[in-house]
Amino acid sequence: MLQNADGAWVGWPGISDFDPPPFEYDGIYQQPVPLSEEEVDSFYFGFCNGTLWPLYHDAIVAPEYHRHTWRPYVAVNRRYAEATAKVVGPGDIAWVQDYQLQLVPEMLRAMVPDATIGFYLHIPFPPIEVFARLPWRRQILEGLLGADVVAFQTRQSSANFSRAARLLAGAQVVGRREVLWHGRPVHLQSAPIAIDTAEFDQMAQSPAVRQRAAEIRSELGDPETVILGMDRLDYTKGIDLRLKAFGALLENAPRDRHTYAFVQVAVPSREQVPAYQQLRVDIEQIVGRINGEFGEPGWAPVSYLYRTLPFEELIAYYVAANVMLVTPLRDGMNLVAKEYVASRFEDDGVLVLSEFAGAAEQLRAALIVNPYDVDAVAETLAYAAGMPEQEQRRRMRRLRNTVRKSDVFQWANDCLATLEVR
Ligand code: GDG
């Protein structure tokens, strides 16, 4: 998008206390925003990932509210707005991404009043009953209402925001897709994010990936059913409950135990945040318990990989798995679910998907589960493992049609087209 639009990218270089001058990369002008080590700690790990992330995911883990992390959140947002104002002129479009930068739209509008400003939230916008706890709720709403278009993954998030804007900030709701803020229309969009579907499809079909997928199955002892979980190690992803459901499956079906292998890939994430350290301990304990209880010398039902896989390897796992278990307790969208579907070029395999993932609004042909209901997930797993091929194909074809029709390019075009008419 940026290459086509002659655009600029404004972002943190990813290294603290590093302030390089602007540069060009891959035909795109890069405007760096420096962050100190202290800010990475207080702004990023503190306010973004210790307050906003849990709050926006239904407060699954208790959010922390600290004035000393809110202040750097404001300061860093201002720095982003200032850096953006350097590259955005009147009539230009600025597109602000995600919960780390919710104050930028309002700040940028004050600096460049004639710019068109869009905001996209990658995570859920919570129900007002949860959002209202935030001591700085008004500032956040006013920040977002500085945009011309505020876009969400789901209609539910858009409705939650509209209600919060009306009841907590006094915005006037005009319809399902618009609020008035100080007489200025703010358009609300729901635009589910997606993937480069063709890329996954092609990669999955490549001889190297297919061969690696066969190897993975044989390394697992050629079981009838390979079940896969693939997530950042995050408490929103429901990895612990999912493992318990697999444990229940083994318990309920003593004779079939050897027909299953469960692979859980947990990608290291936010290891500085205490809740993530505790989660890792909890998950590893459950894995140990299941393997201790049901495993035998030379055979363990759960293969647990705590690491980041190379891209091709990731796709090989999608190709190797008969059943994909995606059971977040709350998720903005969940791209893993879409990637699995895009990689199933033979139209087989079963997706088990949480009703609390944004993706469930679109991927209706999946087996939809309540991830908190461990017994129901175990039963669904058993059903998925035994699903007749015909039903697998019927469902997978529908799923594949959906991810083909609405891919990431479609998403980007939708978002940009909505901004262009403002
Ligand atoms: C946030 C929202 C929303 C995973 N393991 C490996 C690996 N991955 C890649 C997957 C996928 C991505 O990471 C994870 O995306 P998700 O959407 O599943 O989840 P979040 O990271 O929580 O993303 C989410 C998303 O933003 C986009 O708006 O959908 O709701 O929470 O692409 O493939 N990639 C590689 N190795 C791995 O081991 N290479």
Give the topology.
Blueprint: H1 2-5, E1 8-11, E2 23-25, E3 28-32, H2 37-56, H3 67-87, E4 93-97, H4 104-111, E5 116-120, H5 128-131, H6 137-144, E6 149-152, H7 155-169, E7 172-175, E8 178-181, E9 184-190, H8 197-205, H9 207-219, E10 225-232, H10 239-252, E11 260-267, H11 274-294, E12 302-306, H12 311-320, E13 323-326, H13 335-343, E14 350-354, E15 367-369, H14 374-385, H15 389-405, H16 408-420
Parallel strand pairs: 1-3, 4-5, 5-6, 6-9, 10-11, 10-13, 11-12, 13-14, 14-15
Antiparallel strand pairs: 2-3, 7-8, 8-9
Which terms would index this structure?
single chain; 422 residues; Rossmann fold; 6-stranded mixed beta sheet; 6-stranded parallel beta sheet; binds GDP-alpha-D-glucose
